[in-house]
Amino acid sequence: MKHILEISQFPTHFKNEDFMEAFDSYRQDGFDIKWVDSSHVLAVFSSSKSAWRCLKSNTSGLKVRPLSQATRASKVKARRYSDFLQPSGPRPQTSALTAKRLVMNALGLRVNQSKSQYKAELAKLKQEKMKIPSSEEGTNGGASS
Q: Where is this region: Disordered (predicted)?
């Protein structure tokens, strides 16, 4: 679980928002906090590469260390909840097509979209779906978490 780091030696008044602010540059890639106890938290990154980058360039002023050097309680929590502490993947490309249709139907309105516009949007969606498998193969390229 190289994508997980332990954070300690932080002020007692720290809350999730404070950690999110301290590690703001990692939020877009995927970053989450899981509390171990009142003085230790686990930082879950989207990849081991992001965690390594954070470890090497720690500018937060907090004590950050890899899970292998973490306290026993942190290691136990990480092992116990390993299914929930998996790195998050990038969010898939979305389209307003389905949302628009659902909202309009819920309101009892007809979608004022021509058949050609509808077909063009469907074609775009299919094209995006075709791109997904090839791009996922490139991102996993041997990187282990």
A: 126-145
